[in-house]
Amino acid sequence: MSRAGKIAPEQLPILFVKNLNPYSYEVSSEALWKLFDPGEDGLIRQIRQGISVDAKGTAYVVFWNVMDAKNALEKLNGYNFQNRYLVVLWHQPEKTLKSKDDLQARKDNLAQLKMKHGID
Length: 120
What we know:
Elements: E1 14-18, H1 29-36, E2 44-49, E3 58-63, H2 66-76, E4 80-81, E5 84-85, E6 87-90, H3 93-117
């Protein structure tokens, strides 16, 4: 997204949501669906919540078009949902791939350091 608030032509209609309460059973797909599409207008295509240890408290919300995603991002970023302030960002697939590679490199480095210093 450019600085002027305009949407880049290649922008995907996918939002990344974090700071959801990972220990609350109230944060269901249905609750997120109502939050992002309160009028049940059919704006959302899919919602995926993180279930792994690293991804708990996060979700991806896929919209049918970019303008609806932009409106949701502007309205819900910083919104207090179940006593937590949501962080809503554009999904950046290239950043996700890079962070996975970086994570693996850090894990390998940690394993080498543990072996070097005799730590289990």
